Every structure is written in structure tokens, then in C-alpha cells.
Amino acid sequence: MLSSGENPLYVAEQMGHADWSMLISVYSRWMPSVDNLAGQRVADANSKVWDSLDLLMASKRTADESCMSDVDDTDDDLDEDAFEM
Question: What element of type H or E holds 63?
Fold first, then answer.
């Protein structure tokens, strides 16, 4: 399983080990070499997520500012006679 690239934690669980440290120390020679680009792919994926989040937040701010500019802060529309008792 390890030589086919299966997750070492999964293999350790299947073999009944409490953690995967023993599995790594004994069977690491049968594990495929480390993919040097794996960390870069994760970083690229995270970058895309953060860029999307930035765009979403910017569009929300623009929408909120647009809504606030439509609000009239004056009390000219109130009929003060309607509130007299």
C-alpha cells in the first residue's frame, strides 16, 4: 500500500498502530519519494482561495457603500404633525 502512494496515516490505522511514526521508521524505504511540488501546490491553492476572498470582500464593501449612499440622513420626509398628540 505504501509503495502505491497510500496515505501513511491510513495504512497505520489499518495495521492497528496508534500513530504512524513506527510505520515511517520501519517501512519508509518502500514509500515513494517526496513530491517537491506538493507544498507549492498547496500554497498555490491557498493563494487562489485568498484572492477569491479578497474579491468577494471588495465587492461586498462596494455594495455596502452603494446602499449607504442611497440613505437620506435628513428628516425632511417626516410629517411632524403626525407625531403630535
Answer: helix 38-69
Contact 22, 30 (CB under 8 A): no
In tens, the pLDDT along 39-66 reads 677 778 888 888 888 888 888 888 777 7
User: pTM to 2 decimals?
Assistant: 0.35
The SS3 of residue 3 is coil
Instruction: Output the nine-digit C-alpha cell for 59.
Output: 465587492
User: CA-CA distance, 28 to 2, in Å (whole number)?
Assistant: 8
DSSP state of 34: P
The distance from CA 13 to its chain's CA centroid, rounded to whole angstroms, is 27
